[in-house]
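Researcher: We're teaching a course module on how sequence relates to structure. For the next exercise, students receive a sequence and then see the predicted structure as tokens, so they can try to spot secondary structure elements on their own. Here is the exercise chain.
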Amino acid sequence: MSKQLAVERAARAAERFGNAADAVDAAAADLLGVNRTDLRILGAVADGALTAGQVAAAVGLSPAAATTAIQRLTAREYLTREPDPDDRRRAVVALTPSARRRAEEIYGPVGEAGTDELQRFTVAELTVIADFLERGRAFQLAQAERIRGLVGTGPADGPQ
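Model: And here is the predicted structure for the students to work with:
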């Protein structure tokens, strides 16, 4: 196989992998009865309590949009809001125990199966895979930032 064909195959595989991961998240959001932004917030607080500002930064929302989503998730009993133990003037949000159990039920098997799949690779291959994924993440985030910079050049300014 030529290098060009190998590059094209890898690019297609990366795209399909992203689409498949997106399908998992769509199914999880449907099961939980939340939108994709709310699902991202639940994922952001899965590792521990965050302030509303930290949630906003983690998922790329304005503070007002994050606060609205947090209120929605708190009302649905997916999040708790409590005073920050380090600064009682602000609040932190965290997953409720039932939301944590549900997330584990949904994503636990995904993580276990993914880890099992990775076990078949050598350390050298895993190093390449990790490097590819880390670089790919940085690339995708940079592209998201570039696309956000296109504000004002939307469909009205593009091809008709």
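Model: If you want an answer key for the exercise: The chain has six helices and three strands. The mean pLDDT is 93.
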